[in-house]
Amino acid sequence: MAKAIAESRGLHLVALKPEHIRPFIDNMSDENLREFEIFYKMDPETEIPRLLESSSHAAFAVLLHGSPVALTGIDCHGLMWALFSKDLSRNFAKFARASSRLMSFYHTYHDCLHCVVWAENAMICQWLGWLGFTATDTGKTEFGHDVIEFVHCNYGQDGSIYGTPRPAMH
User: Fold this and answer.
1) Angle at alpha carbon of residue 85, lines to 7 and 23, rounded to 5°
2) 10: left (phi over 0), alpha (psi -120 to 50) or beta
3) For residue 92, what pLDDT band results from cuts at 50, 70 and 90?
4) Three-state secondary-structure class, residue 115
5) Beta partners for 7?
6) What is d(CA 36, CA 53) in angstroms, rounded to the nearest whole number?
7) Which residues on neighbouring strands pair with residue 63, listed in sequence order?
8) How many CA atoms, within 13 angstroms, populate the side-chain half-sphere of residue 9?
9) What's the rounded Cα separation, in Å, for the pair 109 and 105?
10) What is the pLDDT of residues 10-58, one digit of tens each?
């Protein structure tokens, strides 16, 4: 198994590798399959392997017992995405509890994380709400699909993105 970037509750976050793609697609959640078909009008067999080719984002696999149960990533603008497997649906509570570590990791890339989610994707909307994301806007895509924008910011206690200020020497 690849070296884990983060581990929690038996889940391991690793860099996405070619060997994760086929097992994930074969076990992708019905919700995400429907999203690819209706919302994106794309084939996951074609699009998911392209995640390995992009230099504008970081892509990761979440492994449980060595099998990919989720794919997730973040782009250079702080836009976060996630895809779930059928196995993750059965282990969702474990994944949700471990996801705070994922958010901490993603906040090392950006202070504010954004997600634009198809409103019909209930599992991801619930997951984002549980993680403390705030729904900030709604809208429609060019194809007329309803979307919700979520934001999660990691500001310091003083409200700044720089955390607690150090004492100044005068």
Assistant:
1) 90
2) left
3) confident
4) strand
5) 12
6) 19
7) 12, 68
8) 13
9) 8
10) 899 999 999 999 999 999 999 999 999 999 999 999 999 998 887 678 9
Q: Are 106 and 80 in contact (CB under 8 A)?
A: yes
How far is it, in rounded angstroms, from Cα 97 to Cα 101?
Answer: 9
Residue 169 in this model has a pLDDT that exceeds 60: no
In degrees and rounded to multiples of 5, residue 20 shows phi and psi of -85, -20
CATH topology of domain 6-153: Aminopeptidase (3.40.630)
Residue 60 pairs in a beta bridge with 15, 72
Amino acid at 41: K
> In this structure, what is the dihedral angle of CA atoms 80, 47, 24, 90, given to the nearest 10 degrees?
50
The residue extents of the domains of the chain are: 6-153
pLDDT in tens, 95-115: 888 888 889 889 988 999 999
Contacts of 20 (CB under 8 A, 6+ apart): 14, 61, 63, 68, 71
> Region 90-96: what's the mean pLDDT?
84
CB 116 within 8 A of CB 148: yes
Give, as one character, the DSSP assignment of residue 38.
I
- The residues near 87 (Cβ < 8 Å, ≥ 6 apart) are 27, 64, 67, 69
